[in-house]
Amino acid sequence: MKLALLSDVHGNLEALDAVLADVTASGAGAIACLGDFVGYGASPNECVARLRPRVEAAVLGNHDAAALGRLTLGRFHSDAATTARWTDEHLAPEHREWLGSLPMTVAWHGHRIVHATPSDPEEWHYVLSIEDARYEFSAFAERACFIGHSHSPGVFGTDGGAVTYARSARVALEPGIRYIVNVGSVGQPRDGDARAAWLLYDEEHDTVEHRRVEYDIERASARIRDAGLPAFLAERLKWGE
Ligand code: ZN
């Protein structure tokens, strides 16, 4: 089967709809969402409503936790704190309840999924370096762990010795190698490519593909400005930074 892994949607409905169309076109048979459904973007309710009936598995992100009042906002920079408060005020009770029921980490189709790190999911650390990845490989039993959080798609691999890192769009997985795969961000890419990102894992061919999708950035930005959210959050969507 082909599996779709989506993360860091961040209330960006235009990006999410473009990605869901690409997911359908790809032939993926199941979808997992790796957290941060909300925060930054102006369409938190619409995004949760789109995803709830479609995802087979989902985990909680730090921005979801913040919007639910579970995270001290002192750890957020000011724009993130502002949108967390705004999302807290605007999130519908049924979506709040659903987000509140999500686990921190779960096994899905034999793979581990988590928003931040498998070693300590509630500390919201980042896996940014070879050293970070080396530490995390000892924290899950499955062959592969799919993560989000940094908004930077990439693939760490190890045979138990050296850890490698690849940023190619498509990576053929190898027998005997374990992987930590960052699936990138649907709603706020930060790797210099403004297109929405998601990951397609083809189990039969054992390949992962970082897919990128054009979407209506102007419209998503306008929604952020119209909601009275920080203008920087509207601007950065255009840069993909
Ligand atoms: Zn995020």
Give the secondary structure arrangement, pairings included.
Elements: E1 2-6, H1 13-26, E2 30-33, H2 44-51, E3 55-58, H3 62-67, H4 78-90, H5 93-100, E4 105-108, E5 111-114, H6 130-137, E6 144-147, E7 154-158, E8 163-166, E9 170-172, E10 178-182, E11 196-202, E12 207-213, H7 217-226, H8 231-239
Parallel strand pairs: 1-2, 2-3, 5-6, 6-10
Antiparallel strand pairs: 1-11, 4-5, 7-8, 7-10, 9-12, 11-12
Helix pairs in contact: 7-8
The structure holds zinc ion.
Rg for CA atoms? 17 Å
Please name the CATH topology: Purple Acid Phosphatase, chain A, domain 2
CATH superfamily caption: Metallo-dependent phosphatases
Into how many domains do the coordinates divide? 1
Low-pLDDT ranges: none
Number of helices: 8
Residue-averaged pLDDT, rounded?
96
Q: Distance between the terminal alpha carbons, to the nearest Å?
A: 33 Å
Cofactors and ligands present?
zinc ion
- How does the major sheet shape up? 6 strands, mixed
The general outline is: globular
CATH architectural label: 4-Layer Sandwich
Query: Which structural class should the secondary elements be placed in?
Result: alpha/beta
Order of helices and strands: EHEHEHHHEEHEEEEEEEHH
Strand content: 15-25%
CATH class annotation: Alpha Beta
Strand order of the largest sheet: 3-2-1-11-12-9
Helix % is 25-40%
Question: What are the salient characteristics of this protein?
Answer:
binds zinc ion; 8 helices; Purple Acid Phosphatase, chain A, domain 2; six-stranded mixed beta sheet; globular; single chain
